[in-house]
Specification:
This protein is of the alpha+beta class and 215 residues long. It is built from four helices and nine strands, in the order ββαβαββββββαα. It is globular, with a radius of gyration of 16 Å.
Length: 215
């Protein structure tokens, strides 16, 4: 089992239009797949933040994964995929092949946003055409388990000893130790959040359609 933490890169925050993040009903849009990959769209809220989500593992890997924008997080939730740099995809694929499962906690500017699991190997041949960066080649399937906004303040006490750095200030693909990762997982599950990325699904769906139509 591998858990990863996805974080938005703060260098890009000022130039990225963000959703209003005001709670509202999730989109039920069932528009077709993006590009040539025929990706399945998932959106029902009741499939996330389940009470029976497991938080104890004897063998787990945890990583911080960073995103350059909320649009990419929206695509990941909607189409159940993720991608990174060639180096990042290679690293995650190696970890997955050795351990067969990978879970990810997700963060955007100032807060974490969820837990997602890597459920398949990286496809290095196909490349999705909707990421913010053109450097993302290939992709891999993921399953989102928790989607909620968790402030960095809830996690800032967690320090990665081997690099002496708070988990809220780490680089992309920074590995987190087992015990610290499990602690973060429990915080995610038990935290009562007022907002989540699900609140902005309609906003990003509309923006995605506008971009695809060239508006």
């Amino acid at each position: 089992m591998h858990l990863h933490l996805l974080s938005k890169d703060e260098r890009y925050v000022d130039c990225i239009e963000k959703g209003p993040h005001v709670p509202r009903r999730a989109s039920t849009d069932t528009e077709g797949a993006v590009g040539n990959d025929q990706l399945q769209i998932l959106s029902p809220r009741d499939q996330y933040n389940k009470e029976d989500f497991q938080t104890n593992y004897d063998n787990a890997k945890f990583y911080v994964i960073k995103s350059i924008g909320e649009d990419d997080i929206h695509k990941s939730i909607k189409y159940s995929v993720w991608s990174s740099t060639n180096h990042g995809n290679g690293k995650l694929n190696d970890v997955f092949c050795k351990n067969n499962r990978t879970k990810v906690k997700v963060n955007r500017g100032g807060q974490f946003v969820g837990v997602v699991e890597m459920i398949g190997r990286v496809d290095f041949v196909k490349t999705l055409d909707f990421w913010k960066s053109k450097n993302w080649n290939g992709f891999f399937p993921v399953k989102w388990h928790i989607i909620k906004d968790v402030s960095n303040r809830q996690l800032s006490h967690i320090i990665i000893e081997r690099i002496n750095r708070h988990v809220t200030h780490t680089r992309d693909l920074q590995e987190i130790g087992l015990q610290k990762g499990l602690e973060m997982l429990r915080i995610f599950k038990n935290y009562t959040a007022m907002t989540s990325m699900l609140d902005d699904i309609n906003f990003y769906d509309k923006r995605e359609r506008s971009i695809r139509l060239g508006r």
